[in-house]
């Protein structure tokens, strides 16, 4: 069989078998018992030539409604932001994307420095002292934060707001089952966590309080108001944040968070049906040696020259095995690089300007919606997402299909995850949406309902 | 001496920009009149101010200080550093794959759902399993998911089983994942042939055994010849068998974990299915199960209706729940599917045959110069011991560092833990005989250098942008960022 990725010629094969002293390739598999050998051809997708495959993949791709052809007002944890052109050029450099985890620092200084800079960016943005090299996504990072908090406080109770992303809470529950943690959910009032109920729930048995801000409804939580109560009981304050919002919103470090997690998707990472994105994980200094995953540190070489290495590895699975702080091994390095290039490109001014554009456009959209036949059930301050209530009995799934026909990807049906919010739609407006698109979208939505 | 590379933060000059955003076309209201002031940032984040050329030159320079498969041979054992096909990269960037949202109406993502459905089917066929979830983001994530499935299975039968057994040659993620899934780990020693010791296994298996986790071929590159007996021992005690698929590149189309007796399997698509490692991710770690474990799979799975349309199937009352936001690392799954279709089943079988041929050839050529830890047949990788060189004061680490001077990525070293001065070599099928010979000749030369000029080896590398780095100080006095530290 000839294949463009396989260099073996008949002559090579004969020479190599002769060195081994085998008659055929079949001889090399003599150690696999006959009873478990697979005879025949596996029933799976057939081989295609390169042109056939390109055509096939293009056809599959074309059956999806993408953000280039449809104006998206869908967010709910995954956003259609502008991706600066330079990003793809950088992460397409194959010295980066075809490398393994940087175990050999002398030939991996590029990756190691890029991760060191990513950690620096995350610390600067969140106001935290230590960040790791990334996690699978923001949701799994939140579950890891709960695990860390339980280990650090030797407590088993985790309090989480219902305004945290429903999927993140589902992952938290799966993970809590494995670690034997108790998860207590706190409800919401006016689109934000019920602070009275939260305050009442925190006790000396609480390992952590998990809040998301902006929360799943887009609303900004007043975390500062609850912070003293959390720390009074020596629990840890865990904040899940949208990194782009930190161009404008107060940093969790100043607020007093102990652990900050989030998803870097808004920082130049394609939505890609939800993955791969990139989680980040930052902690205050006392928690440094409990942080999960890879960490890069600065050091010097034999000549005293600055260099970077993977460090604090005594926490990790390949050293500690069953006693490791987490089982994470591979993370999302290439997308941490992508987020870093985004932050390098946007810089100090660009991050603020992009965040402000999101705020202004989403508020304009909310105002437009409120002026017509739609209502806004919540009055809490928000970042780039807000909730509209459609008239009683509206089927949002049906509305979204009609919006699709009109060229829009509509908002998230909140009734899916919150029975009490039947008929409510979560609408995201990023800097990519123009005033004209917003006007047409709201007009269309009003016309449909 | 090559100069130090500046950090991007050190290139900053106030007033420069590298971004381009649209003018605001809605009312330019002050942030403070839209959001209460106490919620706004008191100090802006001090991100660097650079222009676009700085960005490109900075990261291009960083890339030149990095080594990937496209730079040269990368025989990193247990990591399957095969060629990362370029068509995979192009296809994953199609707007219809890269710019779509999982919450869109199902009718607007039928192409994506069909791809996922087909991939689930293909991976099930490849591993001999009945159903596959594509949610796990990486191998270790797959292990944890698989163990949670095993836990749910035992709990559904009213059984409280507390222990997971792993061999001493297993990946560190195996015991770590067992801990996170709430299990205690029991490590058993390998026998003198590097295989699972059946007596040691029998001694620890019992009614508290939840599972045995096994990599087959093992991290020593050896096929567990007694796998059928091993499966019987574990199953008779009521335990399940977990297959760590890190080494699947040796067996595609030749034998299947499902036929060996495994109940749960994860695959590392970033190893076997050629998706790029990205410098440490993103990967994907799909998990396949036998039918008795299907009810517990994470939700949703992708299903097909009678009318031929595809949908997210959330109606799974016994599911362990969700393990990853949305539906896993879709962009990686697109690449893996593309890869499968460049080969088809017969091509994938040929891939494994050649991976094994390359490994055996290298092992035979290197055997006179380095000690082969377990002589005989190897599969896709093999393990050498560098202990013969210790008499010259040269260690395996020194050999690895010396390889850098010749433009090679070194093999995996000091793993598995049960081989002294371990060197684990995995060539993969995408390397030519010329490449293998060049590497082998270099390894032989280094072994000679160790005798004739040990200092040359011990002080390597000599040609890289930095020399050996002080890892002790890095851990003792951590400097982990350049802003707040």
From TrEMBL, chain A:
Is Oxidoreductase given among the entry's keywords?
yes
What's the source species for this entry?
Paenibacillus lactis
UniProt enzyme class: oxidoreductase
The reply on keyword Oxidoreductase is yes
What's its job?
Answer: The glycine cleavage system catalyzes the degradation of glycine. The P protein binds the alpha-amino group of glycine through its pyridoxal phosphate cofactor; CO(2) is released and the remaining methylamine moiety is then transferred to the lipoamide cofactor of the H protein.
- The record's EC number reads 1.4.4.2
Name by which UniProt lists this protein: Probable glycine dehydrogenase (decarboxylating) subunit 1
Please spell out the taxonomic lineage of the organism that makes this protein: Bacteria, Bacillati, Bacillota, Bacilli, Bacillales
From which residue to which does the signal peptide run? Answer: none
Automatic annotation (TrEMBL), chain B:
Q: What class of enzyme is it?
A: oxidoreductase
Give the reaction(s) catalysed.
N(6)-[(R)-lipoyl]-L-lysyl-[glycine-cleavage complex H protein] + glycine + H(+) = N(6)-[(R)-S(8)-aminomethyldihydrolipoyl]-L-lysyl-[glycine-cleavage complex H protein] + CO2
Q: Which GO terms describe its molecular function?
A: glycine binding; glycine dehydrogenase (decarboxylating) activity; pyridoxal phosphate binding
GO biological-process terms attached to the record: glycine decarboxylation via glycine cleavage system
Q: What's the family?
A: Belongs to the GcvP family. C-terminal subunit subfamily.
Question: Which cofactors are required for activity?
Answer: pyridoxal 5'-phosphate
> This protein is called what?
Probable glycine dehydrogenase (decarboxylating) subunit 2
Q: Which Gene3D superfamilies match?
A: 6.20.440.10, Aspartate Aminotransferase, domain 1, Type I PLP-dependent aspartate aminotransferase-like (Major domain)
- Quaternary structure (record): The glycine cleavage system is composed of four proteins: P, T, L and H. In this organism, the P 'protein' is a heterodimer of two subunits.
Species this protein is from:
Paenibacillus lactis 154
Record carries keyword Kinase: no
What positions are modified (N6-(pyridoxal phosphate)lysine)? 271
Cited NCBIfam families = PRK04366.1
């Amino acid at each position: 069989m000839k294949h463009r990725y396989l260099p073996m010629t008949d002559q090579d094969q004969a020479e190599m078998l002769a060195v081994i002293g085998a008659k055929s390739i079949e001889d090399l598999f003599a150690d696999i018992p006959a009873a478990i050998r697979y005879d025949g051809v596996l029933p799976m997708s057939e081989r295609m030539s390169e042109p056939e495959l390109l055509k096939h993949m293009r056809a599959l791709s074309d059956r999806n409604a993408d953000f280039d052809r449809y104006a998206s007002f869908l967010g709910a944890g995954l956003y259609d932001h502008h991706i600066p052109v330079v990003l793809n050029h950088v992460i397409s450099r194959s010295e980066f994307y075809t490398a393994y985890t940087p175990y050999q620092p002398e030939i991996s200084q590029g990756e190691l420095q890029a991760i060191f800079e990513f950690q620096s960016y995350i610390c600067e943005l969140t106001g935290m002292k230590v960040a790791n090299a990334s996690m699978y996504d923001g949701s799994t990072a939140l579950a890891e934060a709960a695990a860390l908090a339980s280990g650090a406080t030797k407590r088993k109770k985790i309090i989480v707001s219902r305004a945290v992303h429903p999927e993140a809470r589902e992952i938290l529950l799966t993970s809590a089952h494995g670690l034997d943690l108790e998860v207590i959910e706190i409800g919401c009032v006016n689109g934000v966590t019920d602070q009275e109920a939260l305050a009442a729930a925190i006790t000396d048995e609480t390992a952590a309080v998990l809040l998301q801000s902006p929360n799943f409804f887009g609303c900004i939580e007043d975390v500062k108001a609850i912070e003293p109560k959390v720390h009074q009981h020596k629990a840890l304050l865990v904040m899940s944040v949208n990194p782009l919002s930190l161009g404008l919103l107060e940093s969790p470090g100043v607020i007093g968070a102990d652990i900050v997690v989030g998803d870097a998707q808004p920082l130049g990472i394609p939505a890609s049906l939800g993955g791969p994105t990139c989680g980040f994980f930052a902690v205050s200094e006392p928690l440094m040696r409990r942080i999960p995953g890879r960490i890069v540190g600065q050091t010097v070489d034999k000549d005293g020259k600055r260099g970077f290495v993977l460090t604090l590895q005594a926490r990790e699975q390949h050293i500690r095995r069953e006693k490791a702080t987490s089982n994470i091994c591979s993370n999302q390095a290439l997308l941490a690089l992508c987020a870093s290039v985004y932050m390098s490109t946007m810089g100090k001014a660009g991050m603020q300007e992009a965040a402000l554009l999101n705020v202004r456009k989403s508020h304009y959209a909310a105002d437009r919606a409120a002026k017509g036949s739609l209502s806004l059930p919540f009055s809490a301050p928000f970042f780039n997402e807000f909730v509209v209530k459609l008239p009683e009995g509206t089927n949002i799934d049906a509305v979204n299909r009609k919006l699709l026909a009109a060229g829009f990807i509509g908002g998230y049906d909140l009734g899916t995850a919150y029975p009490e919010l039947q008929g409510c739609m979560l609408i995201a407006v990023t800097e990519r949406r123009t005033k004209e698109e917003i006007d047409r979208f709201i007009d269309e939505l009003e016309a449909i309902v | 001496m090559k100069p130090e590379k500046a950090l991007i933060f050190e290139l900053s000059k106030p007033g420069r920009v590298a971004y381009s955003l649209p003018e605001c076309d809605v009312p330019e209201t002050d942030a403070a009149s839209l959001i209460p002031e106490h919620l706004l940032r008191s100090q802006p984040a001090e991100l660097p101010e650079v222009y676009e050329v700085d960005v490109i030159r900075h990261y291009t320079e960083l890339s030149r200080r990095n080594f990937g498969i496209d730079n040269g041979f990368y025989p990193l054992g247990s990591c399957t550093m095969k060629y990362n096909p370029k068509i995979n990269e192009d296809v994953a960037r199609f707007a219809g794959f890269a710019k779509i949202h999982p919450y869109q109406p199902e009718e607007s993502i039928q192409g994506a759902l069909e791809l996922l459905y087909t991939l689930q089917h293909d991976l099930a066929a490849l591993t001999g399993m009945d159903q596959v979830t594509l949610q796990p983001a990486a191998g270790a994530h797959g292990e944890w998911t698989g163990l949670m499935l095993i836990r749910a299975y035992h709990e559904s039968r009213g059984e409280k089983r507390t222990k997971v057994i792993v061999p001493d040659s297993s990946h560190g993620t195996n015991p770590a994942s067992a801990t996170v899934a709430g299990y205690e780990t029991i490590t058993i020693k390998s026998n003198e042939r590097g295989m699972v010791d059946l007596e040691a296994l029998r001694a620890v298996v019992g009614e508290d055994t939840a599972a045995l986790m096994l990599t087959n071929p093992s991290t020593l590159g050896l096929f567990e010849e007694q796998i059928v007996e091993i499966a019987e021992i574990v199953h008779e005690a009521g335990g399940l068998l977990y297959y760590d698929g890190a080494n699947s590149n040796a067996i595609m189309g030749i034998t299947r974990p499902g036929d060996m007796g495994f109940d749960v399997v994860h695959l590392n698509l970033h190893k076997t299915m050629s998706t790029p490692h990205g410098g440490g991710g993103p990967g994907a770690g799909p998990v396949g199960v036998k039918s008795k474990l299907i009810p517990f799979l994470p939700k949703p799975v992708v299903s097909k209706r009678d009318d031929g349309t595809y949908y997210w199937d959330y109606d799974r009352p016994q599911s362990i729940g969700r393990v990853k936001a949305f539906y896993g690392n879709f962009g990686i799954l697109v690449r893996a599917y593309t890869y499968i279709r460049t080969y088809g089943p017969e091509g994938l079988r040929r891939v494994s045959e050649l991976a094994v041929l390359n490994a055996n050839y290298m092992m035979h050529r290197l055997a006179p110069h380095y000690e082969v830890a377990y002589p005989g047949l190897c599969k896709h990788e093999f393990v050498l011991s560098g202990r013969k060189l210790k008499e010259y004061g040269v260690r395996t680490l020194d050999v690895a560092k010396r390889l850098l001077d010749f433009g090679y990525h070194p093999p995996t070293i000091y793993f598995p833990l049960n081989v002294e001065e371990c060197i684990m070599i995995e060539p993969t099928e995408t390397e030519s005989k010329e490449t293998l010979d060049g590497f082998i000749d270099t390894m032989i030369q280094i072994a000679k250098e160790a005798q004739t000029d040990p200092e040359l080896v011990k002080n390597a590398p000599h040609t890289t942008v930095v020399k050996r780095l002080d890892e002790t100080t890095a851990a003792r006095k951590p400097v982990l960022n350049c802003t707040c530290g």
